[in-house]
Design brief:
269 residues; alpha+beta; 60s Ribosomal Protein L30, Chain: A; 5-stranded antiparallel beta sheet; globular
Length: 269
């Protein structure tokens, strides 16, 4: 093999390779971005608000997509809480059970939870004050966020809704029949997801919370609370993956603005 000793030949080779380096660097950055945890969402919130309660993804697939999250079940059969990779179902009775792996979901959001260090929370925070405190801790609320709050709750009000039958009514009507559960000095875990303002219609802007008691026997969608003591762990999410039903979302009224309905459903006392 002939060894090239002309220094200009090496310079020419360097110049020819140089344009490829930025492209390789950009490719590496893209791969790193795609490797970051994502918020995986099944369905869209406006479809659920419009009465789209037919499930499309089996519960058994959720732990493969994320180990923390929330949602609901086929026919709106209760509240979903995903915690430590386990999918829990809170029916209208409020008595928690592990979800049947074969049951499907029309709407769920899950993520791989990779949080920062635990943050001690001030005592006595109400729900809105807790959310404001977490927003300040996040700093940038233009990204998605998953949160876990473990502690003792001086008071907590949660709800679930009864299983529905066709023809399905809008969620705002169903929520009027919700079962409400009240807790006092209860140790447990909040699972929360925060969506940026720009997800209107697609997801839930702001915080959305579900609750499980420490023994995982009771819980529900959180309506209000007063924190006794606790700590929060937060994980920001820069990626969103959206899974839609194979048959699409046809037959539902998705043109109207349902933000008023969403607010009423989320905070219905």
């Amino acid at each position: 093999m002939k060894i090239v000793r002309n220094p200009f030949a090496w310079l020419l080779l360097f110049v020819l390779l140089l344009p490829a380096w930025p492209a390789q660097a950009e490719g590496l950055q893209a791969k790193r971005a795609l490797a970051q945890p994502a918020l995986v969402q099944i369905g869209v919130i406006d479809a659920l608000l419009a009465g789209g309660y037919e499930g499309s993804v089996p519960v058994r697939q959720l732990p493969g997509l994320g180990d923390i999250g929330l949602g609901t079940f086929d026919a709106l059969d209760g509240e979903m809480v995903v915690l430590d990779g386990v999918v829990y179902q809170v029916p209208a009775s409020g008595l928690v059970r592990r979800a049947d792996p074969g049951v499907t979901t029309p709407f769920a959001q899950v993520a791989r939870f990779r949080p920062g260090p635990a943050l001690a929370l001030p005592e006595g925070l109400g729900l809105k004050a807790l959310e404001a405190w977490l927003d300040k801790a996040l700093g940038d609320t233009s990204l998605f966020c998953a949160a876990r709050v473990d502690g003792v709750f001086a008071t907590l009000k949660a709800r679930s809704v009864p299983r529905q039958s066709k023809p399905y009514r809008p969620l705002a009507e169903v929520a009027k029949e919700q079962s409400v559960f009240e807790f006092s000095q209860q140790r447990g875990t909040l699972v929360g997801l925060r969506g940026p303002d720009y997800v209107r219609g697609l997801g839930v802007p702001g915080w959305h919370w579900h609750f499980l008691t420490q023994d995982r026997r009771r819980g529900g969608h959180v309506l209000d609370l007063t924190l006794g003591s606790g700590a929060a762990r937060l994980a920001t999410l820069r990626r969103l993956e959206l899974l839609l039903p194979e048959g699409g979302l046809g037959g539902l009224d998705l043109a109207r603005d349902r933000q008023g309905e969403l607010k009423a459903v989320e905070s219905a006392r």
